[in-house]
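User:
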Amino acid sequence: MDDLDDMDHRIVTALRACGTDPRVAGAARALSWAGEHGALWLAGGLAAAAVDPPRRTAWLRGTALTAGAHVVSMGVKRIVRRPRPAHVVPLVRTAGRHSFPSSHATSAVAAAVVFGGLGVRAAWPLAAAVCASRLVAGVHYPSDVAAGAALGALTARLGTHWMRGGSRD
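Assistant: Predicted structure:
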């Protein structure tokens, strides 16, 4: 193993050990479940669009950017095909076998960028919690989460002009 792989293994082992506390395990499971396929973020964006008519288009476009980021991460995951950590017992079941990048992290950070830009102060702390939950659950390496977060931020950032009503030429 090279140094990054060794560090990835050690960090996920240490964070997965935090999941032995039933309260931590419960929170990690709940956040993992809520973040599956970006559901938490998509539901939140659609709800905001329903209750904020003046910014409905921005909410819908931000939600579309979040969904798009998730789809991109799934495509990258199919190309890279990195296996999930096998040296720890996971707290949750996963929708797929592949680990890189974390699609939960991708959609969480994309949502934090776009919804944070619309004034949702809780977006970043909640996104960070979703990202951490994937490590505590033992289903991702830190590099998977970091790559997913970077992909989500990049995808959302590239679309923020469009989200706010401009076009991207």
